[in-house]
Amino acid sequence: MIYKFYQQHIFPHLLNQVMQTPSLMDQRRKLMLPISGEVLEIGFGTGVNLPFYQNVDTVYALEPNADIYQLAMQRVHESAIHVQHVQASAEKLPFADNSIENIVSTWTLCSIEHLPQALTELHRVLKPGGTLHLVEHVLYQDHKALQHLQNLLTPIQKRLADGCHLNRYIEQALQDAHFRFKEKQYFDAAGIPKIAQRMLFARVQK
Q1: C-alpha to C-alpha distance for 4 and 163, rounded to whole angstroms
Q2: How far apart are CA 139 and CA 62, in angstroms?
Q3: Which of the four pLDDT bands, split at 50, 70 and 90, describes residue 6?
Q4: Residue 127: exposure state from Cβ atoms within 10 A (0-12, 13-18, ≥19)
Q5: How remote is the C-alpha of 190 from its chain's centroid?
Q6: Which of 1, 13, 46, 140 could form an SS bridge with 146, CB 3.0 to 4.6 Å?
Q7: Domain Methyltransferase type: where (predicted)?
Q8: How large is the average pLDDT for residues 29-53?
Q9: Which of 41, 72, 36, 40 is nearest to 54 (CA)?
């Protein structure tokens, strides 16, 4: 019961605060600005990305956690963008094959339970030449001690942060799902604990 209370009433607020760390907000702005038209956003969360969509008219806001989506309602009401909540999982998207031009994922791939299945679904619904725009914290490849610590702490992190994995090798997962990299950049985000500081900023195409 205590854990359920934490998940429903405490974690959504913690997530909302962490996701507004200035260095992360800068990356959101950089990721969103070139995007136009319709967007499927995986893990819409509390709607932090909404102000950065400058040329988007519709956002399909996929967010399976209804408690977290409730915290997005004010941002949704204040936005000029049409937002359609999609309460479904990334592993089973309610969209037709080859139907979406742009998909956005910001710090979401870490928490999807069955990541290969979800990436297969993202690849399926993207139009040929469509783009998945993403930024994600990832497994260290050049620091064995931190990599070991990420592996050690991931079971605890999953419990505290709604399934979040510290140790996912996102680049390899995207390649395994047959995505082609259009843009790729690794960086360490300021204001984030070292254990989760290494980030991947990328745009990949079908």
Answers
A1: 14
A2: 25
A3: very low
A4: middle
A5: 18
A6: 140
A7: 40-132
A8: 95
A9: 36
List the strands of the sheet with 198-205, edge to edge.
82-86, 55-62, 36-42, 100-106, 126-137, 198-205, 180-188
| Residue of 168, 185, 164, 188 whose CA lies nearest to 176 | 168
Q: Which residues contact 95 (CB under 8 A, 6 or more apart)?
A: 40, 60, 125
Residue 83 is which amino acid? V
For the ranges 12-16, 75-79, 114-118, 122-126, which has the lowest average pLDDT? Answer: 12-16
Q: Which token pair is 43?
A: 């893990």
Query: Does 36 score more than 90 pLDDT?
Result: yes
Lowest-confidence region among 81-85, 143-147, 159-163: 159-163
- Find how far residue 167's CA is from the centre of its chain: 15
Residue identified by tokens 């030449």 is: 129
Query: Is 163:112 a contact under the CB 8 Å cutoff?
Result: yes
Domains in the chain, please, with CATH? Answer: 2-205 (3.40.50.150)
